[in-house]
TrEMBL record:
Domain called ABC-2 type transporter transmembrane: residue spans: 19-86
Species: Calderihabitans maritimus
Keyword field: Cell membrane, Membrane, Transmembrane, Transmembrane helix
Molecular function per GO: ABC-type transporter activity
Protein name: ABC-type multidrug transport system, permease component
Alphabetical list of Pfam families matching this protein: ABC2_membrane (PF01061)
Lipid bilayer topology: Multi-pass membrane protein
Location (main, coarse): membrane
GO cellular component assignments: plasma membrane
Domain of life: Bacteria
Amino acid sequence: MKDETTQGPEIKSALLAGVIVFQIPINGSIGLLYLLSLLFMLSCLGIGTLVSTVARNQRQAMQMAFFFIFPSILLSGFVFPREAMPPSSMPSAT
C-alpha cells in the first residue's frame, strides 16, 4: 500500500471531477500542482494556527479569520477583475 499524505486523496478527487465531469484539461506539471497545493495548505494551516493562538474566544477568532479572508477574496480577482483595480492595489493582488 502506498503511503500518501492527507492532501493526496482530496486533490486527486478534485482533479478527477474536473477532468471527468467538467471536461477541464490539465496542462502543465501535475507534480508542480501538488507542490503548490501543499504550499497553499501549509500557509492556510499557519494562518489558522496564528488565529487560534492569539484569539481568546471564538468571536475573536472569527473576526481575525475574516481579516485574512476578506482581502484575499477581493484581491484574488474572483469578485472584481484585477484590471479594474486601482494601481495602488495591483502589487498586492498579484
